Structures are given as structure tokens and as C-alpha cells.
Amino acid sequence: MKGFIPHIVTGGATTLEYQPAAAITPKVGLALAWSSGKLAVCGATAKPDYICMTDAAAAVTAGTLIPVIPVDCHIIFGVPAQAAMTSVNLGDKVTLHTDGLQVTATKTAGVAQIVDREGTAVGDIQYVRFSEIQPAAAS
Questions:
Q1: Is-contact 95 82, C-beta < 8 A?
Q2: Which positions ≥6 away from 134 have C-beta within 8 Å?
Q3: Residue 135: is it exposed, middle or buried by C-beta count within 10 angstroms (0-12/13-18/19+)?
Q4: Cα–Cα distance between 56 and 47 in angstroms, integer?
Q5: 47: closest CA among 110, 135, 108, 103?
Q6: pLDDT, tens digit (0-9, with 9 covering 90-100), for 11-61
Q7: What is the rounded distance in angstroms from the CA atom of residue 100 to the CA atom of residue 2?
Q8: The whole model's pTM is what?
Q9: Residues 6 or more apart from 10 whose CB is under 8 A from it?
Q10: pLDDT of 13
Q11: Quick one: which of 43, 91, 105, 106 is 20 to 30 A from 124 by CA?
């Protein structure tokens, strides 16, 4: 498995949307962010806006509508580790790999919070969310 695959959705359902892509090769689980009015592969230290839900064998024409799900704090994604995660603890935030389909072990400017894992070796699944859920204010 490669990519950010929804594992747990809390607080409601996830909505499938169709949004315009840049000239990218879509892959299921690809982290995407807005760039010049189209979705492109998300940068390492940026929170993705969407996760791609389709595969294509080649790059699509810029502006092609692709199915995506919006990213929010109520979705936990399973994603493979690009590097050994032995120095990463639960609760740490790590960066995205340049392929948009994995996380790294880099914690500096991290955006994907590790909330659980299946192991710490390269390729082991890490469970991440992109925003902490804020505790309810005391009344």
C-alpha cells in the first residue's frame, strides 16, 4: 500500500468531491494541495487540502476533474513510512515525502501527527491526522 488511505472517520461522513487537478498523475492516496487554482502534489511541510481517490496511468491534462476527499481533523489515515521511524514517537508530527504518498521521519516543520502505528521499519503503516482535535472548553 502506498498513499494516505482513510482508516478511521469520526464525527460524520467523508464527502467525495470532484476538483480540478494540475498536470499530475493521480494515484489513490496522493496528498494534494491547491496551487494556482488546481490540485498539485502537496509539499513536505504543507497540510494537504485533499487526498486523491483515483489512479491514472499517465498525467492528466491540467484542469481535469478528479475525485478527492477533503482532509480534516476527523480522519485518521494509514500511510507507509518512507524511512525508519525509530526516532519518532506517538504524538510527533512528521513531514510528507516528496512523492505525496508516504511520510518521512523528519519532525522539523512536520504536519502529519502520528497517532498510532503498525511498526517503525521502512514501509510500516503509520496512522496520522493532519490537525489535532482541540479539547472542548470547560464550562
A1: no
A2: none
A3: exposed
A4: 23
A5: 110
A6: 777 889 999 999 999 999 999 999 999 999 999 999 999 999 999 999 999
A7: 9
A8: 0.91
A9: 74, 75, 76
A10: 76
A11: 43
